[in-house]
Amino acid sequence: MKKPPYKIALLFGSQSGKTALLAKSLYQNILDRNLPCDLYDLEGKVLEDFKDYEVIILATSTYGDGEPPDNATQFFQSLKGSNPLSLGEKKYYALIGIGDRFYPHFCQAAVDFDQEFKDRGFQAISETFLGEFQEQELIEDWTSNLLYHLDFIVLNQTSGLE
Q: Whole-prediction pTM value?
């Protein structure tokens, strides 16, 4: 008997609202492919809230001096303080970081999230995107690549990257 497809949690941390818009667009792209996905604003959320998801996609901006946006701070702290995945658990992640190259800590929150996911044993399913909101063509390329890998992972329950 075939297992049900993996579930995707699409999370966003956004200070100004641009990253939230990006996440909502990505969410619609995922739904258009008939993949099981839920969208969450990270306000008040912790890693444990997403334990039933096999795939976590995070869209985040960077705020202040390289910190996560206000609504993602609690989630970041819970990720940082969590234990590595136990053997037998398989969790995947993808990350898109939005920032402004003018600032010295460009997309630092995404870089920090990326490291924390890796340190916890999550497997990346695509290259982490670090860019500006205006770089729509690059974002679309990243999205296409992500969707390709999501189709494979969610339906086949393997990344094909092993």
A: 0.91
The token pair that represents 104 in the structure block? 């010295």
**Domain count of the fold of the chain:** 1
Q: Look at residue 157 in the predicted model and tell me its pLDDT.
A: 63
Residue count (the chain): 162
CATH number, domain containing residue 63? 3.40.50.360
60 forms beta bridges with 13, 97
64-81: per-residue pLDDT in tens? 888 999 999 999 999 988
Residue 1 forms part of a structural domain? no
Containing structural domain, residue 103 = 8-156
Buried b (16+ CB within 10 A) or exposed e, 35-69: bebebbebeebbbeebeebbbbbbbbbbbeebbbb
Query: What's the CA gap between 75 and 103, in Å, rounded?
Result: 23
Tell me, what's the pLDDT at 81?
Answer: 85
Q: What share of the chain in percent tops pLDDT 90?
A: 70
pLDDT the model gives residue 23: 96
What does the alpha-carbon distance between residue 16 and residue 14 come to, in Å, rounded to a whole number?
A: 6
